[in-house]
Amino acid sequence: MRxxxxxxxxxxxxxxxxxxxxxxxxxxxxxxxxxPVTAVQIGYSAFERHVEGEQGxxxxxxCRELGIVIISMLPLGRGLLIxxxxxxxxxxxxxxxxxxxxxxxxxxxxxxxxxxxxxQFKTLAxxxxxxxxxxxxxxxxxxxxDIIPLIILQDSNAHLNKCxxxxxxxxKAGGMGGLTLxxxxxxxxxxxxxxxxxxxxxxxxxxxxHLTIPSFYRKIYTREKTACDTRGLxxxxxxxxxxxxxxxxxxIDEMDEAAYRELLGFDLPNLEAVLLQHEGKVKxxxxxxxxxxxxxxxxxxxxxxxxxxxxxxNPWSYSPERRRYPRFTxxxxxxxxHSSLTRLRISYVDLTALENASDDMFPFENLxxxxxxxxxxxxxxxxxxxxxxxxxxxxxxHQELHLPFSFREFRHLFxxxxxxxxxxxxxxxxxxxxxxxxxxxxxxxxxxxxxxxxEVLFGLWKTxxxxxxxxxxxxxxNIKILTLIQFCWRDVNDGTQQAAWDQYGYVGLLRTIxxxxxxxxxxxxxxxxQDSDKLMIPDKLAEQAEEQKIEMWSTESSYDPDPLxxxxxxWYHEEPQEES
Length: 580
Prior knowledge:
Helix content is 34%, strand content 14%. It contains 22 helices and 16 strands. It has helices at 2-11, 25-34, 59-66, 92-102, 110-128, 132-142, 156-172, 183-191, 198-202, 206-216, 230-239, 257-264, 288-295, 379-386, 407-414, 454-458, 467-472, 497-504, 506-515, 517-520, 539-547, 563-567, and strands spanning 19-21, 39-43, 69-73, 147-149, 219-221, 249-252, 273-279, 306-312, 343-347, 369-373, 394-400, 423-429, 449-452, 481-484, 526-530, 551-555. Keywords: Oxidoreductase. Residues 1-151 form the NADP-dependent oxidoreductase domain.
């Protein structure tokens, strides 16, 4: 204890409390004189009460005398006080065999006598309408507010049901000596529950209701065509306005043009993120005059940093040429008009009408992440969205068939972000615009993660006489993760696919990047390729990649890890060693 006291003093606040385990009253009194003891953990339950007497040195009495909390280890008597202990199913055959070898109370002879005791205990529990587990915990809690049962939830569903029953019993038996639960127990139970189960928990007591409410309303989901839709959420906030301060995240399951605007009309001071998603045709629409009227009541959300808009009419059921997207008007721009936004993701929406919106509808000074997926958008809208942005770090653009800009216009659009843009994902598939020059990103030194079609990135690389020079004049120099999409995507018959890939030069492209890592991409750590799961990498090339400390593998097109996870990885900050 003297060493702990010195360590506590030395670490200056990192050790807040000291607890002891399996200690006698005499030892506890001595150590308490050296340094304060906050808690003592002992084996204590309705089945194991020897600690109350001289054999257990009257530890509970000593703890109360010294003002020390008691942590009740094994409050269910190592499983004896679980309902199905009597029929032997609680542990299974293997569990019983292990316990019967090492724990006396489960050994032959002892176990039968203990079953008789537990049967009497169960009879009392049945009279109360609860299980033996619940009765055991209620008994402990009734012993005093300074006793905290140490509950270990192994079988989540079974044990959580016991917790529910326990807390319900406590609520019904409110006259049992002013019984209350310690906040630590509340917190422990809450952490094991799913959000949907918190409501039942909130009904058990005033204290737990007070502790649970902030977590219960922190993230709110709506469900289309139910009483819990967006309109239902508006009614809830109107009826219980105190909830507004508790909401941090909204997941809206439908596009109700009127109800969502009314929702934005509430002051939600702590709202951090909104996911507005809709599948199918948008039916709850309003005219432009009604939009203008409701827009006047919208209150800016000063802490909203993440907004996701995803209105998908099952686009994969249609070819790209036949797809139709919900068309946003100027009066819809206000839906993501939040100056605090740092991340904006828009999917399956026609944004072209926003080219006529005023510049103040895009207050994106703080935007760092912009993701546009399979939407109708033109260069003018891009200009308006990106004009106020100062430090764009992540840009993802998924487009098919046609681009809204030329490669030169793209460079001009993103030129000001060349020192801040770290992640660039250009999922341009089946582009038919016919540009053959490739995208020059060689002067974007901040780029670390790059994804794109080789023909988009490098131009006509297959027929280039000097591929190393072509790659050097296109690739950003500091890339650490390079992912090539539409790699070997052509269908080849007669079992000659691998030969065709070699002929087209795909393996040669990988080989060129690996062999010339020092000249082209000295920081490269991962070389990935999509749409090519059957591509066989020659053993020699794999060995060369390993020597160059490059990991190579084929990924699915759906593989899209959070770039921040990559950027925050320990290896991201490592610099390659200088070659001698």
